[in-house]
Amino acid sequence: MKFLHTSDWHLGRAFHRVNLLGAQAAFVDHLVDSVRAHGVDAVLVAGDVYDRAVPPLPAVELYDRALHRLAEIGVPTVMISGNHDSARRLGVGAGLIDRAGIHLRTDPAGCADPVVLADEHGEVALYGLPYLEPALVKDEFRAEKVGHEAVLGAAMDRIRADLAGRPAGTRSVVLAHAFVTGGQASDSERDIAVGGVEAVPASVFDGIDYAALGHLHGCQTINERVRYSGSPLAYSFSEADQRKSMWLVELGARGEIASARRIDTPVPRPLARIRGRLGDLLEDPAHTAHEASWVEAVLTDPVRPDDPMARLLARFPHALTLGFDPEGRPQETGASYAQRLRGRSDQEIAEDFVAHVRGGGPADEAERAVLQGAFDDVRADDTRRETHR
Predict the structure, then answer these.
(1) Which part of the chain has CATH 3.60.21.10?
(2) 32, 33, 84, 350: least CB-packed within 10 angstroms?
(3) 344 SS3 class
C-alpha cells in the first residue's frame, strides 16, 4: 500500500513580506498530480494545515479547494491538526467530510479510532494522533505527568491496545505532530516546549509499522519507520539548504517499509544567505546566481554604509532582510551600564553611542564637532536659566 506523506502546509503564511498563497496553491496542484502519477492509495497530512488558529479567508478557500480536489480523485486522505491549527475549527464537519473520504482527526479522544483500508495483503489501520497540548489532555489520557512524552506515550498505549484487538497481521500507520528526539529544528517552527521539555523519544512509536510525523520543517528520517516529511515550502532563511519534498512510502505485506522515496515539491524562488562588505556583495560575480533569489544579507562593513538596502536591491531585487555584523566589533566586557559610564564625559558617552548605533567605527571629526556644539548649547541654556532665577 502506497502513502504520500506530507505536513506543515501553513496555509496563509507569508515569507517575510511575500505572500505565499500562490506558491501554496501550486503545491496543492502538485500534490494532486503526484497522487495520480504514483498510484497513491492514501494521503497523510501530519498537521499544521493552517499557519494560525484563525486563518485568513483566502487560506480557508485554498484549504476548501484542496479537500474537494482530493475527494474528487477518490483517494482517502487522513489529516490531523497541529500546534498551529485550531483543532475545533479544523475538525468542523468531520463526520460529514468523512463520507467523502477525507478523514479529519482533530479530537485526541478519538486517536484509537483508525481509518481502516485494505489491499490484497489485508487491512491497514491508520491512526490520526493530533497535536497534544499536555496541560489540556493530561486528564483524558490519565498521564502521570504534564509533559509531551507522558501524554504521547499514554495516547500510543491506547492505540496499541486497539491494534492488539484487530485481526493478526493488521498493519499500522500513525500520524503524529511532535518533536521527536534526533530531529533537526529550524527557525520557523513554533516552540512547543512545556517546562523546558519538548522532545519525545522515537521509541514511543514502537510496534507501529510507520509513523508519519509533522512539526519539523526539514524532511528527515529518524529511523526507517519514523520520518518527517517537512514543510512543502521554506518558511525561514534557516531552511535555505533544505530540499523540500514529500515521502512516497510503500508498506509491504508484513508491514515492512518496501520503499521510501522523496517527491520534490515546487520551489517558488530559491533562498540565498549572503555575507560580506556591501561593496563586495554588489561586485562579486560569485553572487550572480543569487540575483533572482530571495536574499538574506549580513553586512560586515566596519562602519554601516549609507542606504544599504536600496543599494542591495539594485543588484538583488528580491532581497528581504538585512543584518549587520561589523568586522572588528569590540567584545562585550560584561561590565554593567553604570560601570561603563563611570569616569567618562558626556562627549565621550555620546561618541560611544554613535559608534554603537552605526555598528562600529568611531565618530569622525565633523560628528564630534556637531556633538560638541550640541552640548555647548545645552550648557549655555542651563547657564541662562540659572542667571534668571
Answers:
(1) 2-264
(2) 33
(3) coil
Q: What's the predicted TM-score (pTM) here? A: 0.84
pLDDT of 52-86, one tens digit each?
999 999 999 999 999 999 999 999 999 999 999 99
Strand 199-200 to 171-177 pairing: unpaired
User: Phi, psi at residue 349, to the nearest 5°?
Assistant: -65, -45
Dist CA 211 CA 366 (whole Å): 66
The three cell numbers of residue 162 are 486497539
3-state class of 230 per DSSP?
coil
Dist. CA 349–CA 366, nearest whole Å = 16
Q: Helices (H) and strands (E) in the chain — how many of each?
A: 11, 19
Distance CA 36, CA 48 (A): 24
The three cell numbers of residue 318 are 528580491
Q: Which CATH number applies to 2-264: 3.30.70.20, 3.60.21.10, 1.10.357.10, 3.20.20.60? A: 3.60.21.10
The pLDDT assigned to 197 comes to 47
